[in-house]
Amino acid sequence: MMFTSHMQIALTEARAAAARGEVPVGAALIDPSGRLVAADGNRTRERSDPTAHAEVLVIRAACAALKTERLPGFSLYVTLEPCPACAAIIAAARIARLYYGAADPKSGGIAQGPRIFTHPQCHHIPEVYDDIAAPEAQALLKTFFAARR
Ligand SMILES: [Zn+2]
Fold first, then answer.
1. Can you give the residue range of the structural domain that contains 29?
2. Per-residue pLDDT tens for 15-68?
3. Which of 107, 122, 126, 135 is most buried (most C-beta within 10 Å)?
4. Residue at 36 is within a domain
5. How far apart are alpha carbons 129 and 116 in whole angstroms?
């Protein structure tokens, strides 16, 4: 089977998040057959909810739709390196593969900072692929924060 990147869907969600005044991060969740089951962007401001990160929203949507708490075999695409909280949730949901775009030296929890998946307390470690369409994701964030200064 040919590998198809779904990062463009996540990037579209990140742009939509920026248009809503949210930090431009988007996510897309793909089921084991390659079907898109959820896509969303950050909504922390809109919902007054610090947990409304793009990753959490798509995991919640998929779990609710499928009436399950685990998503084995699923692939998650995120435009930015997930934070430690999202990393723990990704592990709890048993996501099989994590594809992310830009590294997040400030708040990332995968390749830097707490490196959640390296802890012995982390019971499930997804395959991680970083640097997927990273320049595009990075440019969105840069533009967003430049406009706010
Ligand atoms: Zn997060």
1. 1-68
2. 999 999 999 999 999 999 999 999 999 999 999 999 999 999 999 999 999 999
3. 126
4. yes
5. 15
At 14, the amino acid letter reads A
Task: Compute, in angstroms, the gap from residue 126 CA to the centroid of ligand 1.
Answer: 16
Question: How is the beta sheet containing 26-30 ordered, strand by strand?
Answer: 36-41, 26-30, 75-80, 97-102, 127-129
Could you tell me which residues are beta bridge partners of residue 98?
A: 76, 128
Quote the ligand 1 centre to 147 CA distance (angstroms): 22
Give the CATH number, domain containing residue 8: 3.40.140.10
H helical segments located in the chain: 7-19, 54-66, 84-92, 134-148
**Residue 92 within any structural domain of the chain:** no
The answer to whether the pTM exceeds 0.90 is yes
DSSP-assigned letter for residue 82: P
Q: Is residue 131 part of a domain?
A: no
CA 79, CA 140: separation in Å to the nearest integer?
10
> What's the structural domain count of the chain?
1
Residue 144 lies in a domain: no
Q: Of 55, 69, 127, 136, which residue is the catalytic one?
A: 55
Q: Residues at the annotated binding site for Zn(2+)?
A: 53, 83, 86
